[in-house]
């Protein structure tokens, strides 16, 4: 009997070329998990993901699904999680949860909301712990100015300015429900830890990184916050700011 | 002219045998920083630390001092920080701040308060990001029971039960000013992120790890919270719980 399984996944994106399986020899998160499933049940199974992440992008709560015919043997989510994690032991990929779901569940198409968090370490000194896990910006950014810039991006817009020129989505229209910037002073030394909390039903390719890169220009005083609105209205990628590096980006939660 | 410098330091303890310099070839945080100073000014200088950390223990805000005769050349804290970080680039050690201080400042003896944070990842799934950076405990711990146990440890006591048998301190008397447990649900999947915030003027060898290891016994239901008081009153290391691993321990802040 076939059963659909929903996986919730955490991974450190640093060693991977991204989520998507590539040719043999190129490390991807998808290939790592599919290899674990193959080791567990000796079946070649393709998994379907909610949000394909790029090279170096991380996940705290990625979601994927797959169908498994395990014969008449009983299989619980607890056992499946434990078995896959045993096979994933040598990789920075962890299954947080495996849940039996109905056939109408689809990791990508059933998603109604996604939360991305972008981490930015804003201090003169480089990170000892978070190399490749944050965007390190030395010059102190003006958080209030970035918040004013972010306000222009909320709502339903044509996000062509913040979309990679290679983006395959049919429409550049998206609804941005939240773009909140949380700032905390560093625990020691000068500087601040910034988190950009970004929510919406779906995003264009590089949209979060392009929005963060643009807001950093505002925080650095090179742009006014009103220029973010002008860039959005230009509907032209060349009017936007630079793409922030993948290091700081985490897919944190997907709601269904 | 000789100047005393106060360094604030962040380091990932995983690759080190601890703070203290050992024989050649054994990696220590002290040796890494002294080598950076040597590269910067061609002088063999010994640095003095506030709290020697054990192998695998981390720091977010360690403090050390040293004396440097830099001739008649001007040297700012900004320049010293930048130069040392350039020499430390290949190590997970970062100077957060360098400050010129008076000759009466001593990293260890002038300290009036220390904050340690012990991080515990309490969920079935192993960590993808924090291997060696948290203590991973699979079974769900009862935080309220641990808080009741922790309350017995606050104040001025003979901490022999929580002191390593090799501890060199003359007196086992210490004052514990704070032992707060902060619990947050994991962002995805089941489980909780725990932080033990521990403050006092000074601590015995392994005191924080022995207290956390004992409280975990309470959280796991193997001890009652009253047994923590009984263990403390026994003044015998054999009456205490196990030593928590170094992975979760961070020296976060030192007040002067």
TrEMBL record, chains A, B:
<dbReference type="GO" id="GO:0160147">
    <property type="term" value="F:tRNA pseudouridine(38-40) synthase activity"/>
</dbReference>
<protein>
    <recommendedName>
        <fullName>tRNA pseudouridine synthase A</fullName>
        <ecNumber>5.4.99.12</ecNumber>
    </recommendedName>
</protein>
<dbReference type="GO" id="GO:0031119">
    <property type="term" value="P:tRNA pseudouridine synthesis"/>
</dbReference>
<dbReference type="GO" id="GO:0003723">
    <property type="term" value="F:RNA binding"/>
</dbReference>
<keyword id="KW-0413">Isomerase</keyword>
<feature type="domain" description="Pseudouridine synthase I TruA alpha/beta">
    <location>
        <begin position="9"/>
        <end position="109"/>
    </location>
</feature>
<comment type="function">
    <text>Formation of pseudouridine at positions 38, 39 and 40 in the anticodon stem and loop of transfer RNAs.</text>
</comment>
<dbReference type="Pfam" id="PF01416">
    <property type="entry name" value="PseudoU_synth_1"/>
</dbReference>
<comment type="subunit">
    <text>Homodimer.</text>
</comment>
<feature type="binding site">
    <location>
        <position position="116"/>
    </location>
    <ligand>
        <name>substrate</name>
    </ligand>
</feature>
<dbReference type="InterPro" id="IPR020097">
    <property type="entry name" value="PsdUridine_synth_TruA_a/b_dom"/>
</dbReference>
<dbReference type="InterPro" id="IPR020095">
    <property type="entry name" value="PsdUridine_synth_TruA_C"/>
</dbReference>
<dbReference type="InterPro" id="IPR020103">
    <property type="entry name" value="PsdUridine_synth_cat_dom_sf"/>
</dbReference>
<keyword id="KW-0819">tRNA processing</keyword>
<feature type="active site" description="Nucleophile">
    <location>
        <position position="54"/>
    </location>
</feature>
<dbReference type="InterPro" id="IPR020094">
    <property type="entry name" value="TruA/RsuA/RluB/E/F_N"/>
</dbReference>
<comment type="similarity">
    <text>Belongs to the tRNA pseudouridine synthase TruA family.</text>
</comment>
<feature type="domain" description="Pseudouridine synthase I TruA alpha/beta">
    <location>
        <begin position="150"/>
        <end position="256"/>
    </location>
</feature>
<dbReference type="InterPro" id="IPR001406">
    <property type="entry name" value="PsdUridine_synth_TruA"/>
</dbReference>
